[in-house]
Write a structure and sequence with these properties.
Organism: Bifidobacterium cuniculi
Distance between the termini: 84 Å
Number of helices: 13
Keywords: Membrane, Transmembrane, Transmembrane helix
Order of helices and strands: HHHHHHHHHHHHH
InterPro entries: PAP2/HPO, PAP2/HPO_sf
Low-confidence stretches: none
Pfam families: PAP2 (PF01569)
Helix content: 55-70%
Protein name: Pre-pilin peptidase
Number of domains: 1
Structural class: mainly alpha
Length: 356
């Protein structure tokens, strides 16, 4: 009886198969680890990468901006060199005088460039600029519209301010007007309008716009020489000044001045057109320099045998400057407007299905 009172709950003998657990060894419920395949991991990483903000959606690559700044300085330096060689040297003044006095007589009869009126040049230039502004507004590229407005204002001011400020010393006897005429305002207006149209168009039409801009600039540049309004170096200086200002504007490109993300693709037409124009521009300049070197002995004496060479060099330099500037601007416009982001490389993500 006493044994039963001492142990009211006798211990149940343990079975040899029953495990014993220590206090620190409590069993935990087993949760299976989900397996992730390589494809699912890649999809998750890609989706996360697409959701992450890409700086190329808001601005061009830093290297493209640096290139625009360098080309701005290079074009400005070429414009200054054209002014110096044509105005501040005796051989340059003699060359320009031979060209401006005899250029119209060297043109074929079916090409009456001297008959182009100033009103026509201004009207076509304003029309091209207006088309560029309308295209930028329709595409809702408001930052680009501001860039083009600032570019047009600076180009107008440059043509108005530089001409009365720059001196033109009389180093040799000339038959043309001895007053300074650099830079050419009509040529700068034509070049600026063409470049504005080029930059406003979408990538599918940029090559076509570049060809229109180049052709119009060459026609206006040659017409002002044939009409004895401006000298060859005035035209070259105006084209490169317009190119320098446009390069500076492209360096300020931002989101609404760029192509829409997901639609950015490389353009074969832009690549072919830019390459051909840049190559032709360099070759034309090299040819013009070679011709001037050939007639350099007759420039100081204004020899008659140097007239044809001076006119040929003038045509080559006008075409070379227009082709080179338009080709370079086309190249940099494509680089600044369409840097390939993640979306540009693989396309926009699929849209969710529309619920009916």
């Amino acid at each position: 009886m006493s044994d039963q009172q001492a142990s009211p709950n006798p211990a149940t003998p343990e079975s040899p198969d029953t495990p014993t657990w220590d206090v620190l060894e409590q069993p935990a419920p087993h949760t299976p680890t989900p397996t992730v395949t390589v494809d699912e991991a890649d999809e998750d990483g890609t989706e996360h990468g697409l959701r992450a903000p890409d700086p190329l959606e808001r601005r061009p690559r830093t290297s493209s901006i640096v290139l625009c700044i360098l080309f701005t300085l290079a074009f400005a330096a070429i414009a200054a060199a054209a002014y110096w060689l044509g105005v501040r040297t005796a051989a340059g003044q003699s060359f320009e005088d031979l060209a401006i006095m005899n250029y119209a007589s060297t043109l074929p009869s079916w090409l009456p460039l001297a008959g182009i009126r100033s009103v026509a040049v201004v009207a076509v230039s304003l029309a091209l600029g207006a088309v560029g502004a309308v295209v930028a507004a329709v595409r809702r590229r408001w930052w680009l519209l501001g860039q083009l407005a600032a570019f047009a204002a600076l180009a107008f001011l440059a043509s108005r301010i530089l001409k009365p400020v720059l001196p033109r010393p009389l180093l040799v006897h000339v038959d043309s007007n001895a007053a300074n005429s650099a830079p050419s305002g009509h040529t700068m207006l034509a070049a600026a309008a063409g470049l504005a149209l080029l930059c406003a168009l979408p990538h599918a039409w940029r090559a076509v716009g570049t060809l229109v801009s180049t052709l119009f600039t060459v026609v206006v540049g040659c017409s002002v020489i044939a009409g004895r309004w401006h000298r060859p170096c005035d035209v070259v200086m105006a084209v490169f000044l317009a190119g320098a200002l446009m390069m500076a504007a492209l360096a300020c490109t931002r989101r609404s001045g760029m192509d829409r993300t997901g639609d950015r693709v490389s353009s074969p037409s832009v690549q072919i057109c830019a390459t051909c124009l840049i190559t032709l521009g360099i070759c034309a300049f090299a040819y013009g320099a070679y011709v001037l070197w050939q007639v350099s002995d007759g420039l100081l004496f204004a020899s008659a045998w140097a007239i044809s060479g001076s006119c040929a060099a003038s045509t080559a330099m006008v075409f070379g400057s227009a082709a080179l500037v338009n080709g370079m601007v086309l190249m940099m416009r494509q680089l600044t407007a369409a840097p390939l982001t993640r979306l540009g490389l693989i396309g926009a993500p699929p849209a969710p299905p529309v619920k009916s």
